[in-house]
Amino acid sequence: MVIKVLGSGCANCQKLEALAKQAVAELGLDAEIVKVTDYADIMAYGIMSTPGLVVDEEVKTAGFVPTLDQVKAALQS
Predict the structure, then answer these.
(1) Residue closest to 33 by CA, chosen among 25, 42, 43
(2) What is the pTM of this model?
(3) So what's the architecture of 2-76 in CATH?
């Protein structure tokens, strides 16, 4: 599983990355977490506001920081 956190590196982007790491650990998943900061790469996903969460190339959330439970649900769906 490849999890991408899309964003410029702002506080919300960092929070989403931390939540993704926590969710992976709590769920016991084998996943790679990648930070995507290049605006062209972010826009290629159709995301106009960050942070964004992409799981195996599928956009799960964008424009807000989800809760830990929302991140877990996104990783399991």
Answers:
(1) 25
(2) 0.94
(3) 3-Layer(aba) Sandwich (3.40)
